Amino acid sequence: MSDTTIVDGWAGIVAGRPKPGDFAERTRRTTEADVMAFADMTGDRNPLHFDKAAAERSVFGRLIVQGGVTSGLLNAIVAEDLPGPGSVFLSVEWKFVKAVGIGETITGRVEVKDVRPDKPICRIETSVRNAAGEPCLTGTATVYTVPLAAR
After folding, report:
1. Is the pLDDT assigned to residue 1 strictly greater than 60?
2. CA-wise closest residue to 73 among 45, 104, 51, 47
3. For residue 146, is it left (φ>0), alpha (ψ between -120 and 50) or beta?
C-alpha cells in the first residue's frame, strides 16, 4: 500500500470537474457599441474600427471590430459556462484568421481537451466562427478555476 494520497484538485469548484470532450458555445451579434466600449476601455481607436471610408478602402472592405471584441466571447464562455465560475486564462495561443465586421453574428466555442486531476487546470481548444461557419479565431488556451464553493 502506498503512502501517496491523490488529492482532488477540483474540490470546491462550482461547476465541478469537466471532462475531455465537454464543450460550450455562445452566439452574439457584434455592434458599434461593442467597438465604442472596447475603445473606451483600452484606447484602441484604430481607423479600421471607426473610419468607414478608410476601412472600406482597406483589405477588409468594411468596418471591423477589435480583436478583443472577438476573443471576448471566449472569456464569457470560460468564466460563465466551461469550466465556469472562477475560471481565468493562464495562457492563450490564438490566431485571428478572419476579421469580424460590425453587425456580424459570431459563435464562440470552447472544448475541453485535457483535465489535470491534481489541480483545477484544463487545456481547451477555442474558436470563433462567423454565421457562414468560417473560422475567425482559432487556437488553444490553458485555464485555471478558483474554488468558489464552500468546502
Report:
1. no
2. 104
3. beta
Output the DSSP codes for the chain. --S-----TTTT-TT----TT-EEEEEEE--HHHHHHHHHHH----HHHH-HHHHHHSTT-S-B--HHHHHHHHHHHHHHTSS-TTEEEEEEEEEE-S--BTT-EEEEEEEEEEE-SSSSEEEEEEEEEETT--EEEEEEEEEEE---S--
pLDDT in tens, 103-120: 999 999 999 999 999 999
**Dihedral angle over CA of 16, 19, 106, 98, nearest 10:** 130
Q: Is 17 within the bounds of a domain?
A: no
Total domains present in the chain: 1
* pLDDT per position as a tens digit, 34-44: 999 999 999 99
Residue 73 lies in a domain: yes
Residue with cell 472596447: 38
